[in-house]
Design a protein that fits this description.
By secondary structure, the protein is an alpha/beta fold. Helices cover about 30% and strands about 25% of the residues. Strands 1-7-6-4-5 form a five-stranded mixed β-sheet, with helices on both faces. Bound molecules: oxa(dethia)-CoA. The site of oxa(dethia)-CoA (UT7) has 20 residues, from α2, α6 and α8.
Length: about 325
């Protein structure tokens, strides 16, 4: 019998831009108020990448540089970069390629993965499979989104939720039984009507008409997305626990996608987890799409202990959703 090595996260890095966009700033831009936003979403402020000429790759590079420094890693040792994003620098080439160039990872191949808010989980699972196969030993998985580049700041239904940021992890073969244990990932393309960008793809190439109709901005029909998200994220997390004979008592941390505090509450409840075991930073970063989960790991890194059971859970555009069980490796 061949022993396959598990894949372990061995370092975390993160980056959020300095500029804060508070609920009070938004009050001056659209018909909303701080009390509504906080009670409906849990968000107080989000970060916005304002500098001209800066894109998703620049935030990803900052997150990755922290990892390279922490691990004293030569970028030439990196074999693969997987970038989860829906706000690539350009339609092509991939943002992963641009990141590789900017950090000097000349020996790495890379590609982008598009799964919206579940992007980091899908990318983590993909990267882990490369490690488990024995083919690669050092993979960077990054979740990054510059949501401010696709948000209509006159649309109060979307502009209050989203923010910019990047989070990255290094994946290496596990030295023991810790690392990624199991994942359940799901997609349902019929959800495309509720959360999308209508133009700029091959269906509706950019034209003066699409720009005038604001079809290059993210569109979200909040209520149906909310309903699917509450059910999807809670169901898949419960399914993952059941499949692996785990209960809430076994779990040290739930690491949920940060879309709305009420969705997080529902998932924690369903798993039988008290809120002390749930990572929540939505109040200060908002919904950074592919970056929310690695940014939680970044904020909580110093509190994590070797062997801790973590459940990472997400729901987002597509629809895409999933949950991943990790035994923390350091
Ligand atoms: O990240 C990936 C996936 N995304 C999500 O998971 C997000 C899921 N959706 C949501 O989080 C919520 O649907 C939102 C936060 C987007 C909206 O919250 P909601 O509780 O679903 O609000 P609603 O759309 O049902 O609107 C309730 C009321 C409406 O007024 P009436 O019709 O009751 O008079 C809206 O017009 O609140 C009004 N409203 C606002 N009021 C102040 C909508 N947006 C705002 C606003 N400020 N920004």
């Amino acid at each position: 019998m061949t022993m396959t090595k598990k894949a372990a996260i061995t370092a975390v890095g993160g980056y959020v831009p300095e500029t804060k966009l508070t609920n009070f700033d938004l009050e001056k831009m659209v018909d909303t108020n701080d009390e509504w936003i906080r009670s409906r979403t849990g968000i107080s402020e989000r970060r916005i990448l304002r500098e001209p000429g800066k894109a998703s790759s620049d935030m990803a590079v900052k997150a990755i540089e922290e990892i390279l420094k922490k691990k004293q890693l030569d970028p030439l040792e990196i074999e693969c970069i997987i970038c989860a994003t829906v706000t690539p620098d350009m339609v092509f080439p991939s943002t992963a390629n641009i990141i590789g160039d900017k950090i000097g990872a000349k020996n790495a191949f890379g590609f982008d993965l598009s799964a919206a808010c579940s992007g980091f989980l899908f990318a983590l699972s993909t990267g882990a499979s490369f490690i488990e196969s024995g083919r690669y030993k050092k993979i960077l998985v990054v979740g990054v989104d510059k949501m401010s580049s696709i948000i209509d700041y006159t649309d109060r239904a979307t502009c209050i939720i989203f923010g910019d940021g990047a989070g990255a992890v290094l994946l290496e073969p596990s030295m023991d039984e810790n690392g990624l244990q199991d994942s359940i990932l799901k997609s349902d393309g019929s959800g495309r009507d509720y959360l999308n960008i209508k133009a700029g793809g091959s269906l509706k190439p950019a034209s003066i008409e699409t720009v005038m109709a604001k079809e290059h901005y993210a569109f979200q029909d909040g209520q149906p997305v909310f309903k699917f998200a509450v059910k999807g994220m809670a169901d898949v997390s419960a399914e993952l626990l059941e499949k692996n004979n785990l209960t809430g008592d076994d779990i040290a941390w739930l690491v949920p996608h940060q879309a709305n505090l009420r969705i997080i509450d529902a998932t924690a409840n369903r798993m039988g987890l008290p809120m002390e075991k749930v990572m929540i930073n939505i109040q200060k970063y908002g919904n950074t799409t592919a970056a929310t989960i690695p940014l939680c790991l970044w904020d909580w890194e110093s509190q994590l202990k070797k062997g801790d059971n973590l459940v990472l859970a997400a729901f987002g555009g597509g629809f895409t959703w999933g949950a991943t069980w990790i035994k923390w490796a350091y």
